[in-house]
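Run log, item B.
One chain of 449 residues. Sequence copied directly from the ordering sheet:
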Amino acid sequence: MKKTACHLLSAAFFLSLPAAAFAADGSLNSTSILRVYQDDRAGFASKDLAPVTEFLALDAEKLGDGNLSAHLYGWGRLDLADDSFNNGKTDASLTYGYLMYRFKNANAQARAGRFMVTDGIVNEHVDGVSASTDLPYGFRVSAFGGAPVHTQHLANENTDGKGNGIFGGRLGYRFGGMLEVGVSGVYESGAPSLDRPGNIALERGARLGDHRLVGGDIWFSPVRAVELIGHTSYNTETSGIAEHTYLLNLKPAKKLLVAAEFSEHHERNYFYSSALFASMVGDLSEKSRTTGLSGSYELGQGTEVSADYKHYSRDIGSADRFGANVRFTHMDNTMRSGIGYHYLNADSGFAINPATDDSASFHEVRCYTMRDTKTFFGALDAIGYFFKEKINNEKSAWETIGSVGYHITPALALSGDLSYGQNPQYNDDLKGLVRLTYNMNYSGKGDAK
């Protein structure tokens, strides 16, 4: 397979948007990209592709009485040649778009529209409303309700498997500046029935069902040098623990940071409401666990060293990943570079074909450098993976990426990327693009900050 690339045009229609249109503080970020390339993988029909993609973010503050704000982020794509994805020549998604009102008392706020809820164990994408406020004696309460955002398509299904309604919230308690604990939960209305025989079998086998979780979270920092963050969630449909995730940060010296982490997922309880991931759970009692330790130290004069280790444990086997990085900062922080090495020692259960005795172990080497000035910026990044045993008769996979750009104005930049690599899937992998970005903050009636 060989990919060749390309050109880039930028739509950037927002560049002509008058700043005077904003009668409040705010920001506008726009990125427009046109890529042109050819996909001629062996066994597939050759296609000429030219997708145009626009990413747009808009924030407007101090609207109305000064306590109202509006926030929007989304993207849209138009294929000028063959379809780049299976769902047609056009596609678009509104990631979030909501109004938020901050009340003058009790740190209270309310939102309406499409937004993300990340509070305690809750991590949901919702079309609806939410509100939160401080309560007496250190308590705080938050709640949300509406409909889950339906953005994914399940193959050969008329639904994405999500219910029509969702609500939840969190009750927290903070003691001084050293402890915060909370209990939270999410309840989604009954999941619709699926039609594919495989999905029906998952439902009948008690591997797939409604999305309902409860749990608790903690933040504990008795002194500035110690911080513990974590949460545990429980699936009320399967009556089992879904997840433990905890992180301990220690700063025993000014330039030394040490972190330890632990996470454990009980796969059936964790993926119970996802048809895609539930189909991958072979054993209902299967679980995965990760433990890790990392540390970084500033040597001074713009040099930092770090090392990390992680142990992965699953029913199919275990793996260990360890390595180190060195980072450099020069020229008043306008130039940064680094080099790193890691090794993954993995059991054959992690191999592409786990039924064999193939090794899944490999070495990873990466180096990079980047420069950013008031007029131009550029970067060069190279990464290579060297396998212990060949994959598709190849001993390695590697890629180099070069990027160069020019600040036309402080808010407007033109840049381009070009990359080339080889790997077990592609003999030659050449890609490129040109990108036009516009990032501007506004204050008052259209004046740039």
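Observations after the first pass:
- Residues 1-22 have pLDDT under 50 and may be disordered.
- The radius of gyration is 25 Å.
Flagged for discussion on Thursday.
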